[in-house]
Amino acid sequence: MSESTEDAGSGGGLTTGEVARRLGVAPTTVRTWDHRYGLGPDRHTGGRHRRWTPADVARLERMCALTATGIPPAEAARLARETPAPAPDAGPEPSARPRPAPTPVPPSRAGSGLRLGDARQECKGIARAALRLDAAALDRLLLDAIREHGLVAAWTEVIVPTLQAVGRKWESSGERYVEVEHFLSWHVSGALRRAAPDTVPDRPGATTVLACVPGENHTLALEVLNAALAERGIPVRMFGGALPVESLIAAVRRTGPAAVALWAQSRTTASRPLAQHVAAMEWGVRGARRSPLVLTLGPGWSGRPVPGTARPHGLADTVQALEGLAAR
Fold first, then answer.
1. Do 147 and 77 lie in a common domain?
2. Domain interval for residue 311
3. Looking at 193, 216, 251, which one is the last position of a domain?
4. Which CATH number fits the domain that encloses residue 263?
5. What single DSSP character describes residue 61?
6. Is residue 282 part of a domain?
7. For residues 272-293, b (16+ Cβ closer than 10 Å) or e, as one string?
8. Using CB atoms within 10 A of its CB, is residue 261 exposed (0-12), middle (13-18) or buried (19+)?
9. Is 203 inside a domain boundary?
10. In Å, how far from its chain's centre is CA 268?
11. How many domains does the chain have?
12. Residue 321 buriedness (CB in 10 A; 0-12 / 13-18 / 19+)
């Protein structure tokens, strides 16, 4: 049965596609868990159409949490079926009526999941897919978030909170889950490249140069900035991580950019003299010399501002500043 047919049903509850998006798995995974392990919905609507109630979804969420810890799917399905779902609040139980003890569940080796707080529902799905190292689901969820919210909002409200949650998980678990962080970062980078439009042709005096300072290899923030600027028709030259000083100076001279964005993740790599040197560079004919606007981006530049440079706060402010500069 096709997803379009299955999603066409009417009535209460969620469709299989909606459940899959909420859980961060492929719809085929949900169907497999139904057919192979008996984790399907308790009722159907309109013949063969699947409709999942909150209790059905809670059972699948337990399945996701258990498999993410490494428990084999068959055993995870058994535990998910046997663990009772929370009952609707019907007021306090009579004191004479003892509360039944819940079926014990083995403690999760991955803890209780990523601490995502009030972040969007998409964060939880992406985090689950990353924990399972599920490449296909992760790519789909990232691209869905970008298409639905736009590059800037998807980065700020979905991707960054998820990356931060994975980072906290790594730091709090004795450097376990490093593979999850690398896996997620790689797929975020790929999603940004696929979501970005084609390279924008040069316009004299409108190009922006993006580079990490020497010794800095964290490029994701520049990658999303590159994609957001290309989306707005602003020509960009992206030089990626740890660009040596001599190469940065040569790139600026050869490009003659309107702006240079320098990313530093750490204070140990944020070179104030380098930023000031780039801001003081000039080119053009005498009487009409130009200098680039230098933007110091990233937590490494926190603290006292670098004279002669700008420090926008966040991706949206950076895009707005560069868009305004290109328009002039």
1. yes
2. 208-327
3. 193
4. 3.40.50.280
5. H
6. yes
7. eebbebbbebeeeeeeeeebbb
8. buried
9. no
10. 26
11. 2
12. middle
187 and 219 in a single domain? The answer is no
- Average pLDDT per run of 10 along the chain, which is 328 residues long? 40 78 76 84 62 85 67 75 53 37 36 46 87 92 90 89 81 72 93 83 82 91 92 90 91 91 91 92 77 93 89 89 82
- From the number of C-beta atoms within 10 Å of its C-beta (0-12, 13-18, 19+), residue 318 rates as buried
pLDDT at 5: 37
**Does one domain contain both 186 and 247?**
no
Q: Which residue has the tokens 């994975």?
A: 166
Q: Are 15 and 9 in contact (CB under 8 A)?
A: yes
Distance of CA 8 to the CA centre of its chain: 30
Distances (CA, A) of 74 to 22, 35, 83, 133: 22, 12, 14, 19
3-class DSSP state of 76: helix
Q: What distance in Å separates the CA atoms of residue 245 and residue 250, rounded to the nearest whole number? A: 9
In the three-class reduction of DSSP (H, G, I as helix; E, B as strand; rest coil), residue 5 is classed as helix
pTM for the full model?
0.63
In a domain, 74, yes or no: yes
Q: What was the pLDDT predicted at 44?
A: 56
Look at residues 127, 117, 169 and name the one whose alpha carbon lies nearest to residue 24: 127
What is the predicted pLDDT for the residue at 72? 67
pLDDT at 195: 83
